[in-house]
């Protein structure tokens, strides 16, 4: 089942308890959630522990002002230590967010709660649980470099997307730490096992961002780039599509060709992402900002958003453009299988012949891929 960011959720209908105000039954929200979950609605005044079940998700859309409300919710949730707990709070009510945290909130969403956002949070919780379960390879999840790095990257992406939606600021240290973990893990276990793990646990935009990040690190490692440059590539990969947080999910996951108006809206995502990162953290590396803004530019001026040509496009951005195209064609979606490396390379080479991509970089990518350095085998550390 595909969630709002293309993330995978349990294939069977998971139970959700929607706790609400006594005089406001969220019928529309319950109906929308009911497409994916088995939803039970209860007023906070009447909800009891009998309404709870193991693994159930709880969504609380209740004003947290008042000791009686908080005490009743605390008693209710104390009987259910597992599963997601999502709280809908007013944007400017800092106290409500604090109360939600005290009550064990997995995450807070702004009122009125969006179905896409709720599904995204729920999907993220189950996805991360499945990563820790499946990627440990017999080890503790904390000991597996692949699991640890994917969890770190997943968390960083989730926080980035939420912040871009206007609910926070970018934590550059978090993104940098995740980039370092991804770089180290790929060099240790190899790119292909890492990419396959991503495909197994992610879909849509999250999958794409992680694939591009891994491919960029793999390409850069095979080219002999130093650790700091590899981590810059990883940061660019993680942040390059953050602007898609502002694009309707229906467009991002649409299986067919986008209409001109729809594509015009999707084409705004580089500027959305660049503007968010630039305003959120003035210390952000200019090269990373350029990659976010211009990873859809082509050398012949046919790209977007600014129609740049030739030398106007820096090296890091040129690399990210190739990796972005490769990642988009290699990703697995509900409506398409991943394209195989030889087919993707033919497309990249034809784009280089047409003057859209730098031929030297594409040739290097093709040579490395043909030698299975990029897509198939573990990459060796370079001295």
From TrEMBL:
Q: Which domain of life is it from?
A: Bacteria
- GO MF annotation, one: phosphoric diester hydrolase activity
Q: What is this protein called?
A: HD domain-containing protein
Pfam families hit by this protein: HD_5
| Gene3D superfamilies with a match to the protein in the record | Hypothetical protein af1432
Alphabetical list of SMART domains matching this protein: HDc
Give the organism the record lists. Siculibacillus lacustris
Which segments of the protein form a coiled coil according to its record? none
Instruction: Enumerate the spans annotated as HD-GYP domain.
Output: 183-381
